[in-house]
Write a structure and sequence with these properties.
single chain, 180 residues, mainly alpha, 9 helices
Length: 180
């Protein structure tokens, strides 16, 4: 229910005015919640999201993040992922100017999304492991240690849901998901 309300709020966002700022990382967290916990209605509401509803203004340092958000919207719509968009995200993450966040989190998120689209169990598991490991490090002693985002890796939860919906094996070993 919360994911549906979040999707409705995003879909109703009017074009930005004045000095309004829309953080692409915050928008990604919103889409992660919708992707991980939302129903078909919630994901369908996201299929018509425009870039300005997810990030504003469009800064060059957020270009890879913005492209990835567009890929998530494509996935929600059941569309084939744009190979050029994926390559743009990867190039942005591999750039010497890429942020630590982009290298540690955005790259495996995009790789995992592409692996789901190509039904590649091995790469999905690798991407999930990279996301959970990076998140655990940040949650224990990094930027996430004092933030609520440190409690769960929403990126990994969303990717695991996408993989399971596609019939892929999304199991990994993680201190977040103890087996006993």
């Amino acid at each position: 229910l919360a994911a549906t309300h979040l999707a409705r709020a995003l879909a109703r966002r009017a074009p930005p005015d004045g000095d309004e700022h829309r953080d692409p990382y915050e928008s990604e967290q919103f889409l992660n919640v919708i992707g991980a916990f939302g129903n078909d209605e919630a994901r369908l509401l996201c299929t018509s999201l425009m870039p300005h509803q997810l990030r504003w203004p469009e800064h060059a340092q957020h270009r890879a993040q913005g492209t990835y958000l567009g890929m998530l919207v494509q996935h929600f719509a059941g569309q084939k992922l744009d190979a050029a968009a994926l390559q743009a995200v990867m190039s942005g993450c591999d750039s010497p100017r890429a942020s630590r966040e982009d290298r540690r989190f955005l790259r495996p998120s995009a790789t995992g999304l592409d692996a789901v689209a190509h039904h590649d169990d091995t790469t999905v598991k690798l991407a999930l492991a990279q996301l959970v490991t990076a998140h655990a490090q940040e949650a224990l002693a990094g930027d996430l240690s004092l933030q609520y985002e440190g409690l769960a890796c929403l990126r990994a939860l969303m990717l695991a849901r996408f993989a399971m919906n596609a019939g892929l094996d999304a199991t990994i070993e993680s201190p977040y998901l103890p087996l006993h």
